[in-house]
Each structure stands twice: as structure tokens, then as C-alpha cells.
Amino acid sequence: MDSLTTFAYMISAFVILLTIVVFVHEFGHFIVGRWCGVQVDAFSMGFGPELWSRVDSHGTRWRIAAIPLGGYVKFHGDANGASAPDAEALENMSEAERAVTFAAQPLWARAAIVFAGPFANFLLAIALLTSIIYVNGRTVLEPRIGVVLAGGAGELAGFKTGDVVVSIDGEPVSAFSKMQEIVSVSAEKKLDFVVRREGRDLHLEAVPAWKEIKNPAGKMRIGMLGLQASTAPGDSRAEKYGLPRSFGLAVEEVWMVCSRTLGYMGGLITGRENADQLSGPIGIAQMSGQVAQAAAKVGVTPFLNWIALLSISIGLLNLMPVPLLDGGHLLFFGIEAIRGRALNEQTQEFAFRIGMAMVGALMIFSTYNDLSRLLQRLTSGAS
Question: Which active-site residues does the annotation give?
Fold first, then answer.
């Protein structure tokens, strides 16, 4: 029964989460397309056989399909939901009909429509995090060391329980989270700490070590010192924020996640990070189920945080300069702006096929990683 409950949580949470994130992404394309005067032929949630549909007053067919693993917006004159132009259809259109196609729009409008999808994902994350921070506030921990893990970089640097971190490389530290933020992006870099110990300020030099953590893409490495915050009475305080400050903190958090994720992607390119850390739909579904179970016990906040985190990841993934993704379209638009004309159809079609192959390979590889990790857990559990 526990296994069935866990599976039910996993599937339902994954479908709900993916539906929200994909809907917001596609709605970004849709609404900006409408604002730019483009006719939207279809707005689909899911792929495959149609389960439900209706046509609105603007002629857009809203549809729900059987396979809930994504969605698309199809603009008038496009051959498919990836905004590849249908050259034959465009040639046979009247001038008035062609004017409302995606391909006929000025370069700035096409770029805005494409960028609107990922941007909507970032806006969703900011809105969710702003709401969470505004409603719940934050528990702020003083930058006092409560535990120094044996063998960690902090112990090697000479940190002791009770030390209060005053600054790092000259930057003031007012909370333990600020220290974590600086350390996380400083792996293998020497940092100069000023710590207060028994009323005296001391200088300590520490080099954070790499540590693996989980995120929607799988695992990523960040810098860690092996230090834990003090949980003694008086070393924590609850802070409430107004909407402007909550919004600012949410933007900072989104930026931090983007920086870490881009750092991981850069590490993949340079070989510093391991590609077997990537996760695909199975891994994200498993994590979604775990978060949903936690939310059922402590409230909806963990699930909203998870939606925000995945929305950021989807936004960043779509901005990668890979043909077929939004970033690939933006790359083509950049080339068009420089050349003064678009790439020819044959070149674009060839690039889209390469992009499709790259995305397909990534999906297969990440799914293989998910299955390998799942098999390893099952094997270790059985033994």
C-alpha cells in the first residue's frame, strides 16, 4: 500500500507540476504573440490524441492531449509547434492572411514572442517565491558556527564552535545564509574570513570543497566548508517582509539559482562537472512525489518552492542556443540581425534536425541516468 501511495503521489505531483510550468511557458508565447497581432491556431497542453478541445472567439483551438509531457503554441503559418515556417502554406496565403503569421512579423516582435516563454517561467518563480516570503517570512540564523564537521575544509582552516563570521573577503556577513551564498560559488578558491572569537577578531583562510546537492536537473556541485549554523536560543530570529522587500529577495533567489545552474552547465562543457548527474522526467517525477508527500505533512510551501525551482530550470533550458529550443530561435534572430537577412530554409531545416537530435539524445541520456540510479537503489535495498 505504501508503494502504491508513493507511486500515486509521484505521478499526480509530476503531472500537476509539469502542467503548471508548461502552461505558463506556453502562455508567455501565446499572450505576446496576440499582443503583436499574430494569429494563434492552437494552444495544446500535452501531445498525441486529443482528449478535449474548444475554439475561442479569436479562432484559437485550445486542446488537452493524452500525453501530458509538455505542450506547444502553433502560430498561423507555422508547420508545427516549434515555429518552423510552412513555406508552401505561406506562398498560397493572401497578403492579409500572411500579415498575421509569425514569419511575417518584424524581427523584434519574433524575438519578443520567443523570449516570452522562458521569461514567463522566471516570472512564475518570482511570483511564487515572493508569495512564500511575504506570507511565511524567513528564519534568519546569525553567522555563528554551531558545528565544525571533522575533516571538513572549515576544520582545516581553524574554525571553532562559537565563532561568529564578520566578513568574507571584506564583504560584511549579517546572516549564516549570506555566508552559504558566498561559499557555494567559491569552491577551490581561497577566502579570507574575519571571525569574532571570545571578543577578538581573527583572520582565517579557507578553501571551500566541492559538495554534490540535488536540483531539478539532477545533481550539481557547490562549495562547502563543513560548517553548520548555531541553533542555540538567541542565534535565530524570525523576520517578516513587506511586498517590495519580498519581491527583491525572490529576485535575488532566482538569480542565485540561475547562476548556480549556469555554472553547472559551464562545468559540463569544461569537463569539471559529470554528465551522469543529469536527471530526466523519471528523476524529476520521483523528486516531485517526495516533495508532494512532504507538503501533505507540513503544508503547500515545499511544493510551491519546487514548482518555482523547476520553472527556473525550464526557463534556462529553453534559452540554451540549441535549434528547436527558444534559445536556438533567438540565435537565428541574432544572426539575421547581423546579416540583414534570415538564414535560408535548407540551413534552418538542417539546424532544426540537429537540434532535435541533440534534445532527443539528452532525453535518452538523462532517462538512462534515472533508470541507472533507480536500479542501483533497488539493488542496494534488496541486498
Answer: 26
